[in-house]
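Hi support team,

I've been running sequence recovery on a batch of backbones for a student project. Most finish fine, but this one hangs at about 90% for roughly twenty minutes before it completes. I'm not sure whether the input is malformed or the queue is just slow. I've pasted the structure tokens below so you can try to reproduce it. Let me know if you need the job ID as well.

Thanks,
M.K.
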């Protein structure tokens, strides 16, 4: 049993007995039982009768009552009797109009958890009854949640006048009868009209009814035969017209799909772009099980395994597998070139928006502006800004060129992607070695240059890969490098003019660079390759700052 006082500021002696008990907390307790701005019926307080205070005037003993009464005294007694009669009439009228429940508007949400707690109050706005089922807004106060009977609906008559609906009145009376029976310890009456309570709909608001009335008047006054025709919207109004939102939402279609989650693959219902990015997500989260399912079972919903991550990030799933040295993911992606039937893949989605341009000109000697549309509009792309996600169609096979531009690619990854060693074929071998050296991946460069030097040369000598050793031997008497001349330190490879001095700058161990520098001298400090990169540029890509410090001490140019 708990004592509750819903209207303490109105009647200080009001007490209401409400049954409450503890129970286990559930997640559903956070659900809103009664939303804010809704109307509720509150159990009214029972006014207690107070004894009339006794008069403190003292009467002298032996004093007799006056037998003679003047006209003034008679008049005073008559007025007193009339006042007593008026007070009695007002008391009887007030007793007849005592409300057993009050109405209020909630200013806070009432959750399921609040219904089970004790001494929990919410802010409300009381409604004063002006007539039968007529109310008006009064003042704000706090009320205990346990004293709320049920929710009710009120119809707006004006900006300040409200009317209680008949079904809400019947529902409040039923809840009041059940509450009284509980407080008195009697049997609770059964609810016979439960269906009517659930079927009641909220009445339309005042603004909605006014719009409806104005629409009916316009229809009546419109010209033409039959019913009034709606006025057609202009082209500008049709373009600015926004269709109304749906009132109900299917929560199953809006499940939480985190970018870095580990949930199983689900069908995207024809969304090929989202399905392509599932491959990237599987590699980022190292979800080999999902990646295996994508590359073997459900690849019919994909259009490519080499899709970029987003419009701003052009890296693909294979790029992330190479950077993370994820051999398992790279092997699954590599197998798609052989095992996946390209005819069963989905069609690449088409972009509905067209790409705008200034058009094609017939002659380069024409006298009009031929700049691109984003340049002719002062840098504004227009609708072309929405085409960033439309990437060009990828090739049937995966692009493996990113291996030569990765600072974390390993020798095992090279063997996995090129199992037959066909990376040595073609004219781009020298350029690939230069790209790999500028990234600072000296371990893979050492293995590649050593293989090329033993299998044909390509302009590399033994000194090219000897300067990339990890560390010198423990024996101090053993030389770091074999005996060489100054011309061998600047020996250039075919096509790229890559020299041992360039490769020594990417080795964190500066002893090899110091020995080359001692033999070659300062005159070759600014020696360049075919792209104009100097040793200090290669040192900038090294994983250690020691080669850069050494070159700065030797006063090498930064530009």
């Amino acid at each position: 049993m708990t004592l509750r006082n819903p209207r303490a500021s109105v009647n200080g002696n009001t007490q209401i007995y409400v049954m409450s008990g503890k129970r286990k907390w559930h997640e559903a307790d956070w659900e809103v039982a009664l939303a804010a701005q809704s109307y509720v019926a509150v159990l009214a307080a029972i006014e207690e009768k107070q004894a009339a205070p006794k008069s403190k005037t003292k009467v002298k003993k032996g004093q007799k009552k006056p037998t003679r009464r003047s006209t003034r005294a008679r008049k005073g007694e008559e007025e007193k009797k009339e006042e007593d009669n008026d007070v009695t009439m007002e008391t009887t009228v007030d007793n007849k109009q005592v409300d057993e429940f009050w109405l209020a508007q909630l200013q806070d949400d009432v959750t399921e958890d609040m219904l089970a707690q004790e001494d929990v109050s919410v802010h409300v706005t009381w409604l004063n009854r002006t007539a039968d089922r007529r109310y008006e807004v009064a003042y704000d106060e706090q009320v205990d949640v346990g004293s709320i009977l049920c929710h009710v609906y009120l119809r707006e008559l004006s900006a300040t006048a409200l009317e209680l609906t008949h079904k809400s009145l019947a529902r409040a009376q039923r809840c009041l009868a059940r509450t009284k029976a509980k407080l008195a310890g009697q049997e609770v009456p059964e609810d016979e009209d439960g269906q009517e309570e659930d079927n009641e709909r909220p009445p339309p608001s005042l603004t909605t009814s006014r719009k409806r009335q104005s629409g009916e008047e316009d229809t009546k006054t419109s010209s033409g035969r039959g019913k009034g025709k709606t006025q057609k919207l202009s082209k500008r109004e049709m373009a600015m017209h926004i269709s109304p939102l749906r009132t109900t939402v299917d929560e199953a279609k809006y499940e939480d799909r985190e970018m870095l989650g580990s949930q199983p693959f689900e069908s995207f219902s024809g969304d090929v772009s989202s399905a392509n990015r599932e491959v990237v997500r599987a590699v980022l989260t190292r979800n080999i099980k999902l990646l295996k399912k994508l590359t073997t079972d459900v690849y019919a919903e994909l259009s490519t395994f080499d899709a970029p991550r987003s419009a701003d990030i052009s890296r693909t799933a294979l790029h992330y597998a190479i950077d993370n040295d994820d051999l398992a993911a790279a092997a699954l992606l590599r197998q798609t070139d052989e095992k996946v039937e390209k005819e069963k893949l989905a069609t690449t989605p088409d972009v509905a928006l067209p790409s705008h341009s200034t058009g094609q000109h017939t002659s380069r000697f024409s006298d009009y502006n031929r700049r691109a549309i984003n340049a002719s509009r002062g840098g504004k792309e227009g609708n072309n800004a929405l085409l960033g996600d439309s990437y060009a169609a990828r090739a049937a096979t995966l692009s493996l060129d990113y291996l030569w531009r990765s600072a974390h690619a390993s020798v095992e990854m090279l063997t996995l992607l090129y199992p037959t060693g066909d990376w040595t074929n073609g004219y781009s071998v020298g350029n690939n070695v230069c790209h790999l050296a500028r990234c600072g991946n000296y371990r893979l460069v050492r293995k590649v240059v050593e293989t090329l030097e033993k299998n044909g040369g390509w302009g590399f000598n033994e000194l090219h890969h000897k300067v990339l050793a990890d560390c010198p031997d423990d024996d101090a008497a053993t030389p770091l490098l074999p005996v060489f001349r100054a011309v061998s330190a600047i020996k250039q490879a075919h096509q790229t003019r890559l020299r041992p001095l360039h490769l020594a700058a990417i080795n964190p161990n500066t002893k090899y660079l110091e020995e080359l520098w001692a033999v070659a001298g300062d005159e070759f400090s600014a020696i360049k390759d075919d792209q104009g990169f100097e040793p200090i540029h290669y040192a900038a890509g090294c994983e250690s700052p020691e080669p850069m410090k050494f070159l700065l001490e030797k006063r090498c140019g930064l530009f």
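--
Follow-up from support: It reproduced on our side and the slowdown came from queue contention, not your input. The CA atoms of residues 180 and 199 lie 25 Å apart. No action needed from you.
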